[in-house]
């Protein structure tokens, strides 16, 4: 299983990477949204991307929209990992194409439980996005 | 208006939950009356919308370095200055995000910034510190403050 962690904080990338490696997940890191798109373009599409919301330049929500606009990434799950915990933000992220959402601060157990809810080995189907995009 | 939401107890609880999640092997906070003047770093993050103000997290340099080392999973000797700034920025980002979660929408959160020393807020423009929490962690001072801008735009 492979994951791409996208967060502008090296500290947070390290924490998430440590948790994922402990779950036997191979991890790639990107420090911002453009770097994430480059990684996706260069490499085999990972099973899941963990995406921060607040990043300089292109934010995480915009990254989710950019990824979901491309058919080649349809099979990749996206989990938002963010301080934005209000229902409006969660709905916006799910509407944009995120599959899961976790609010900082989180525990390793919470990340593991979220991942277990996704059929990572089986691949994502677009129908899993249950929130209609109002746009 | 939001003074009732932002009590010392609530802000201390938010901060403790962030520390417990990301610094689980360290000792818990103790609330103290005052903190000694030491060399410090301050992370701050602005909230705008239905409420305007900022949240600041001030740590002694030693506390900030300990936190960075723990979060990165390295020894203190292996922590660089940029690591410390990044760790404090992420901690205030999460504390600020959880403070934002107490507010009625819509509100926006800025990106965090970290400065060397204590935070300077221009109170002439109407900013008022409404909560000031003094904590002790690993025998080092940590402070969290909430500043409300009662008029005009946030800093």
Rg value of chain B:
15 Å
Q: Distance N terminus to C terminus of chain A?
A: 33 Å
| Biggest pleated-sheet summary of chain B | 7 strands, antiparallel
| Secondary structural class of chain A | alpha/beta
Helix content of chain A: 25-40%
Q: What oligomeric state do these chains adopt?
A: heterodimer
The overall average pLDDT of chain B, rounded, is 88
Q: What is the strand tally of chain A?
A: 5
**Would you report the number of β strands of chain B?**
7
Describe what you observe in this structure:
The complex is a heterodimer of chains A (135) and B (155). Chain A has 135 residues and is an alpha/beta fold. Chain A is 39% helix and 18% strand. Chain A contains 5 helices and 5 strands. In chain A, helix 2 packs parallel to helix 3. Chain B contains 3 helices and 7 strands, in the order αβββααββββ. In chain B, strands 1, 2, 3, 4, 5, 6 and 7 form a 7-stranded antiparallel sheet that branches. In chain B, helix 1 crosses helix 3 and helix 2 packs across helix 3. The longest helix of chain B has 20 residues. The interface between A and B is medium-sized, with 20 and 26 residues.
Topology at a glance:
The complex is a heterodimer of chains A (135) and B (155).
Chain A lengths: L1 E5 L3 H13 L3 E5 L2 H10 L5 E4 L8 H9 L8 E6 L4 H10 L3 E4 L4 H10 L18
Parallel strand pairs in A: 1-2, 1-3, 3-4, 4-5
Helix pairs in contact in A: 2-3
Chain B lengths: L7 H15 L7 E2 L8 E10 L3 E8 H12 L8 H20 L6 E3 L3 E4 L10 E11 L2 E10 L6
Antiparallel strand pairs in B: 1-6, 2-3, 2-4, 2-5, 3-7, 6-7
Helix pairs in contact in B: 1-3, 2-3
